[in-house]
Amino acid sequence: MAYIEGHARDQALLLPPSVEDYVAADNPVRFIDAFVDDLDLGAAGFQRARPKATGRPGYDPADMLKLYLYGYLNRLRSSRRLAAEAGRNLELIWLLRGVRPDFRTIADFRRDNRGAFKAVFRAFVLLCRKLDLFGRELLAVDGTRLKAVNSRARNFSRERLARYLAATDARLERYLAELDQIDRGEDGAGTGRGEALAVKIARLREQRQASAALLGQLQASGEGQISLTDPDARLMVAHSKVTVGYNAQVAVDAKHSLIVEQHVTNACNDMGLLTPTAGAAMEVLGVERIDAVADMGYHSGDDIVACEAAGITPYIPRPHRGTATGNGLFPKERFRYDPVADAYHCPGGQVLDTRYASVTRGHLSVQYSSPAACAGCQIKARCTKGRWRRINRGEHEAVIERMAERLAKRPGILTIRKSTVEHPFGSIKQWMNQGAFLMRGLEKVRAEFSLTALAYNMRRAITLIGVLGLIRAVQA
Ligand code: SF4
């Protein structure tokens, strides 16, 4: 059977007469064009939003922004690849009207305007709000670790440096002793070995000096770790994977899994990040109150209290922290607090009403126990390894208990959280292949992630209402 054949390369063809004919009415580039043309780039913070009256004309920031939006939407993020595509990709030739900036100009644009991309992301979120694509009732907040331009070998913690210095000192001592032996002629090895050792010692001393300087730098800054290629990146652990990277936080609306707010930080965990992320999302959505669900990594008394004060109703499962759970003993949830008696009822049916108050890192907590009851308890082996069990009650415990009651009445909300946040993170890392940053420094990776989140939202909105619907909304 024959194959479908192409035409001969020297055959004269009647191609469509204009580039316009190559771009269908519902091609996403038409939306990018309309969306960027509608933006106030000066207000967003883009440089040269107004052309200079004199001098050599520069590239229009609107064209450069269109190029980046197209690139992030189509897995093209490097300036070299964008420059190459601008010259051979018909959609881009249409979008930029034949303008072909070189890769340096493209890279400089992203770097120089790094503070402005968040405003473009926000403008698209406001467009989605206008189109009623947000439910504005429930946010799923989550964070993901994205790799930085920094290998693990070029990240040093104080502990790692201290270990390295101790090991280097031991090696130096060994080499010096060996060198002494050779000098005294006790060792049978010739001068060749002595020379090799001298080189090794000199190299080790150099490395030791560099490591000691890094440790000194860490001690002076108060930081716990230092990254040499990207100084802002941090060693982070997530789901047993260790990465030198950044923590990208998103607040996703549960109605259509669209990202309402995003922010990149180098905080190594998510504690304390619920209120700022959900609070900023509330502002964009224009609501006074909202529910927010997050995983147990966000469980922090201070943050839960701050959420409630900001009009956010948090839903966070309680993590099983503490030695009791680790040792297979009764978890704290098995102990019921009685506010009238100000005491705990334990699984053995006893009342723990001996109280001891203390302040740790500025937070008051009260320890409840009953040594007498524990002394004669039949199930003590399942409760404590000590002489009696103690239950700590922090100053925010009432708020945390209220949240646990809310969560017990609405268990399905945790499944909604998972499916809502997995959509953007799965798409960004797998489909869009954007699980690692290309730039260095917190400000620059924030710009990158604004473009990534914007591209995700655009793709999602196109699926929901189509290119023509979006264009009509921009032009309305
Ligand atoms: S050991 Fe003490 S706290 Fe635990 S169940 Fe027995 S009496 Fe209650």
Automatic annotation (TrEMBL):
Residues 19-111 form the Transposase InsH N-terminal domain. It comes from the Bacteria. Residues 346-460 form the Transposase DDE domain. Transmembrane segments: none annotated. InterPro entries: IS1182_transpos (IPR047629), Tnp_DDE_dom (IPR025668), Transposase_InsH_N (IPR008490). Coiled coil: none annotated. PANTHER family: TRANSPOSASE (PTHR33408), TRANSPOSASE DDE DOMAIN-CONTAINING PROTEIN (PTHR33408:SF2). This is Transposase.
